[in-house]
Design goal:
The protein is mainly alpha-helical. It contains 18 helices and two strands. It has helices spanning 2-14, 18-26, 38-52, 56-76, 82-88, 91-104, 108-118, 126-147, 195-207, 232-248, 252-263, 270-286, 290-297, 299-306, 336-357, 361-372, 382-394, 398-405, and strands at residues 157-161, 168-171. Strands 1-2 form a two-stranded antiparallel sheet. The protein is elongated and about 85 Å long. The model is unreliable at 149-153, 183-187 and 309-328 (pLDDT under 50).
Length: 406
């Protein structure tokens, strides 16, 4: 009956009844006459369950114990018996799970190391290559955030020099790191958590997917998980990350194609399609195609994406046996409503900046003022403050610009 409890626990796990699954697995035997090593499977299963319950740090703990138990089992196995060794050794399956949980626990560098090792065995899994790319992006973002100035109103002013009529206010211009130019020929580098290597991983993932216009059933290998029957969301996540990476590498022409393909995918989640329009507009601006960029940020275009009936209302989350992705590169998945609002705020700020570049200051000021009226003081980003100060200065309203800063 104890063995039945273990199987029933796995069944409840597949039904997302995680608390009941925990109780059943705890009642299962800790040893059995089979060739399987029970402690390894026990810790692995509990790590997966805590991941599904969004208790990522506990998942990391259990899966690290699963790796240790697996190592002990392999050392204790009789030498020269390949069949026994094969049935006992679950190193790469656990390493895959461990890497996914580490990524969600906010440890992208450790996750990168785990998943890179797993890729030597599961190299035909497109979702694995996406996860490795997300780890690399996460490492880069963490290093940038350590150097980045906090997005608050006080960070807008860098220094004040002089006094009286000679008093001058020096504004801060270093709100983000400017990307370095990179050519596609640099994509042959060794596995390191960088944007260059992330682009290589994402291209691998795209090559492993069937063509988007191919008919018939889809059956894409995703070992150690079950085959993928639907790759629409996976494709959208890959394109989103690829556009982001190429923009980060300073190549807007390479970024434009995946961005345009992304917001044209009617089966993609709404938040990813919105990001596609943001990335496409940024790439077009860098290519001096401002009129086309205006179309990508137009309220009518954005509204059509948000109200699209083909977009899903919920974003899936990834683990060793499911699909999904982090919609905003380098971030752990949040609720779809929050993500859509965040992306919508970015679109508004980008559209204001674009109208400033086109010297349509009155329209830019009107859009920005309308947007700021919906935010509280603590929610106003420094970029919005800088845009408003810039508009006032360009219109000759020096006193109004100073009043915004103090």
């Amino acid at each position: 009956s104890s063995g039945i409890n273990a199987e029933y626990g796995e069944f409840e796990y597949l039904r997302n009844n995680f608390k009941k699954s925990c109780k059943l697995l705890n009642s299962a035997p800790k040893s059995c006459p089979s060739k399987e090593h029970i402690p390894t499977l026990y810790y692995n299963n509990f790590g997966c369950m805590h991941f599904k319950m969004k208790k990522y740090n506990l998942g990391v703990l259990y899966l690290s114990q699963a790796l240790e138990a697996n190592t002990k089992a392999v050392k204790a196995a009789p030498q020269g018996c390949n069949s026994t060794m094969y049935s006992i050794n679950h190193h790469y399956q656990i390493l895959y799970n461990y890497g996914i949980v580490l990524l969600h626990a906010g440890q992208p560098k450790a996750a990168f190391n785990c998943l890179s090792q797993a890729a030597t065995v599961y190299s035909r899994n497109p979702r694995l290559w996406l996860r490795i790319a997300e780890c690399a992006i996460g490492v880069v973002k963490q290093s940038q955030e350590n150097e980045q100035i906090q997005n608050c109103k006080s960070s807008t002013v860098k220094a004040i020099v002089g006094s009286g009529i000679y008093r001058k206010t020096i504004l801060n211009t270093n709100f983000q790191n400017h990307p370095k130019k990179c050519s596609a020929g640099l994509l042959s580098e060794e596995p390191t958590p960088s944007l260059t290597y992330a682009a290589l991983c994402l291209n691998n993932a795209l090559q492993l997917l069937p063509p988007s216009n191919s008919g018939g059933p889809v059956n894409v290998s995703a070992l150690p998980a079950a085959p993928l029957k639907d790759v629409s969301k996976l494709r959208a996540s890959i394109l989103c990350n690829l556009a982001y990476v190429w923009l980060g590498l300073g190549d807007p022409l390479q970024a434009l194609k995946p961005a345009q393909e992304l917001f044209s995918l009617t089966a993609a989640p709404v938040n990813l399609r919105l990001l596609g329009s943001v990335y496409a507009a940024e790439a077009l601006i860098l290519l001096n195609r401002n009129n086309e960029a205006t179309n990508c940020l137009a309220p009518e275009f954005v509204g059509a994406i948000i109200n699209s009936t083909n977009c899903q209302n919920k974003t899936n989350e990834d683990d060793a046996s499911s699909t999904g992705s982090s919609p905003i590169p380098g971030k752990v998945p949040a609720t779809q409503e929050t993500m859509v609002q965040d992306v919508h705020n970015i679109i508004i700020l980008n559209s204001v900046a674009l109208y400033c570049m086109k010297r349509d200051l009155n329209r830019a000021k009107r859009i920005l003022a309308q947007h700021l009226s919906t935010l509280s003081d603590g929610e106003i980003p420094a970029q919005a403050t800088m845009l408003l100060v810039y508009i006032e200065l360009r219109q000759g309203n020096t006193e109004a610009a100073l009043s915004i800063l103090y």
